[in-house]
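Lab notebook, bench 4. The sequencing result for the construct came back, and we need a structural model before the next group meeting so we can plan mutations. Quick request posted to the team channel:

Model the 3D structure of this chain.
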Amino acid sequence: MGKLIKNHWARLIVLTAATYQLAAALEGFFWPKVLWDFLTKNLDGAVKPFPTLQIINLLFSLVALAWEWPLMPLVKAFPAGHRSIEARLVVLPLSALAAILLYQATNAALYYIIDYILAEITDERTSKQENSLSLPLVQRILQEHFEGKARTRMTTDARQVVGKYIEIFVREAVMRSAYERSERDKADGAGGASSGWLEVEDLERIAPQLCLDF
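Done. Here's the predicted structure in token form:
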């Protein structure tokens, strides 16, 4: 749940940064200015007479908005890239670099850097840790249904077995919900490509049969 909240927070940060970057790029067409012009004038050629830096920021902002909103044709064309944290680790620094050069887009650069840190942390934990329930969490879930909470004890092996069962149950619920959502999108003419987000209603549709199977 913590990783889910963190990912959703990172998505909202990117949408905010991209919106800010889009507005900054448009403003830069009328008031071209490089952030670092107080140190050197060598970068002024990037904003005038031809607005190269403004166009780059405009393109990066549109890509970020389409990526994180998301834009359905983009999801259909690049389903793996839409969910890829590694791809974000490549694009976010480039977006931040373009934004930090433009005077009006410095806040967007800061937001991109924050989101890059979140993506880096999420990617590192995903690659180094196995996705499993912690034993204290399993113990807490079970104790809520014990009649004699103070007297009931469970061995570590028992908690591991129950934790694995709960993990399989949750994974099966997510997979069935995603499959059912995909089939429903196909029937509605969406081509089976959803936004990647599941709603409570998706789980409610598969819950009766899932509980019977388990």
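The two ends are 23 Å apart (CA to CA).
Will bring this to the meeting.
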